[in-house]
Amino acid sequence: MNSLIRRTLSGIVFLAVMIGGLLWNQYSFAALMLLILIICMIEFYQMTMKDRYGISRSWAIISSVFLFLLAFGVRAYGWEGRVLGLAFIPVLLVMIGSLYTKDRASFGEFANLYTGILYIAFPLTLTNFAAFQGGVFRGLTLLSFFIIVWASDVGAYCFGMALGQKYGKKLFPAISPKKSWIGAIGGFCSSVLAAWLVSVAGWLEIPWYHALALGAIMDVFGVYGDLFESQWKRHYEVKDSGNIIPGHGGFLDRFDSALFAIPAAVIYLSCFNLFV
């Protein structure tokens, strides 16, 4: 019971922070996304590299923050898009810094530095393209994306626990033994329904048929995002990426689906000129 109470309270606080940060203003959005970015990268590097190469890890995180801030400037203040090329400079310095490391025993771990940037920093940087439309901040769009991801997760969990553990086949037993096809179908239906509802409510200003397609796409990519993180955890033999959220694990555990689903959503809507 104490565990359930702790998990419920931390979940409520998590939702309150997310909703408040996404809806208050553009600066609270940026602060929230940077917090998520930094903590997720810290957890990823701690899982894959432990305490090794601390300076290089810190510089990789600084490079990622720089990338996010450049994209924020482009979307919020109308900076020229070409300034995003400046983000490659600190990444180059990370590469150059690897030449001067004295510890060569685990040199292959340097690849995890670039993986963290690609896996975490790039997707969270793309949230700027969802949060700003025509230079105007609209946090409801990004909140709608998260609602779709959360609906998928909740639907998959409920259907999986109710039916998936007893009936049907496992989805990816080698990576995540508890996930089932029934849970995946439940998550898919929940995601599509949530996308339709936020569209009808006017939170996501796109035609209903695009909303249905978006829900389907975000669910599929979100499942792969979840499985991708599970594969890392299984390889490094850890249960959770961290313990910053009592009863829920780490930030990376909470945003693994979103790291795949939100870029997919941004790309889909951009292809149909539904972002300005």
Descriptive notes:
With 276 residues, this protein is mostly helical. The chain contains ten helices and four strands. It has helices at 2-23, 26-49, 54-77, 88-97, 110-125, 127-131, 139-164, 181-200, 208-236, 251-271, and strands at 132-133, 136-137, 170-172, 176-180. The strands form two sheets. The chain has a two-stranded antiparallel sheet. A two-stranded antiparallel sheet has the order 3-4. Helix 2 (26-49) packs antiparallel against helix 5. The radius of gyration is 19 Å and the shape is globular. The mean pLDDT is 88.
List the helices and strands and how they pair.
Layout: H1 2-23, H2 26-49, H3 54-77, H4 88-97, H5 110-125, H6 127-131, E1 132-133, E2 136-137, H7 139-164, E3 170-172, E4 176-180, H8 181-200, H9 208-236, H10 251-271
Antiparallel strand pairs: 1-2, 3-4
